[in-house]
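Notes from hallway chat w/ T.B., transcribed later so I don't forget. T.B. wanted the structure written out for a chain they're using in a teaching module, and asked if we could keep both sequence and structure tokens in one place. Agreed to drop them here.
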Amino acid sequence: QLQLVESGGGLVQPGGSLRLSCAASGFTFSSHFASWYRQAPGKERELVATISPGGAATHYADSVKGRFTMSRDNTNNTLYLQMNSLTPEDTAVFYCQAMHPLGQSYWGQGTQVTVSS
């Protein structure tokens, strides 16, 4: 069964860190681009970061550059997002996405990140 399952969200104070994980199963994860998106209340879903199938290339939204680091472990079919220096503006539901180069994409169910004192 094809699945993407995020974990690692939670409540953190401003300036804190969280590490999100996304476990993939049921498809060839290593053949897919992977991305993290987020959606804050009342806002559209936005791209946070993307990583190439082999992990050599990454792209980050300007709002998270220098604070977030995306990585992947194709041996264990897992995607990661290390988030540092979190601010209340980072509060959102974070989703992982896997996309085959031919266009088919899959989404996880999301994990809530709340940054608040």
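Follow-up for T.B.: The chain has a mean pLDDT of 97. Might be a good example for the class.
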